[in-house]
Amino acid sequence: MIVLHTLVRFIGGSPQFRIRESLDTEAPYYVYYGQSDLMDDLTRVHMTRADSKEVHTRDEVHILSCGDIVFSLITGKAAIVQLAHDGYLYTQNYIKLLPVSTIDAGFLVYLLNENQSIRKQFFISLQGSQVLKYTLQQLKEIRIEKLPLLGRQRQIGELYLQQLHLTALKNRAAELEKIICLAKLAEAGK
Hints:
The chain is α+β, with helices and mostly antiparallel strands. The protein has helices spanning 35-43, 105-114, 116-126, 136-140, 150-188; strands spanning 2-3, 8-12, 29-31, 54-56, 69-72, 78-80, 94-99, 143-144.
C-alpha cells in the first residue's frame, strides 16, 4: 500500500477570516473559489454566477492555477481547476494537491472521488465526529493500492472526466428541454 502523502504535496488555502479587505481599488482583486466552482471544474461545464464572492486585498493569499488539483474538505470531492477559475483565491476549506510524476492528475481525481477503499477510509475516519468535515491529516494518510502504469492512469482519468462531462451535458440538455416544454404548455393553456 502507498500512503497519499508520498505521492502528493499539499498546500492549504488562505484562512478567510485573516484576509483583510482593502478599500483601495488598486489593490489586487480576487474571486473566492467555492463549491459550485469545484463542481463546474469536475464536470467541465461552467455556469455563470452573479453571486461569486470577491475581495480586494494586499494580503498574500493562495490562488489556484489552471491544471491544479483541488480537494474540498467540506464535501471530500476533488477536481482539476479549469481555465475559468484560474487565479481564484482558495480558502482553508480547500487543499491544493501537487502530485509527483508517478501519478496522473485525472487518475488521482478519480481515485479520491470514486475509489471504494478510499471512500471507506474517509467514512471510518469521520465516524464519531460531530462535524462532518474532512481534515488534511485524513487526506495525507489515505492508503492507495498499487498504482497502474502511468499510461493506464491517464486513460482511466480521462475516461472518468469525459464521462462526468457527458453526464453534465445530458443533464443540462434535459433541463433545457423541460423548460421549453413547460413554456409551450403555458402558451397552449392561454
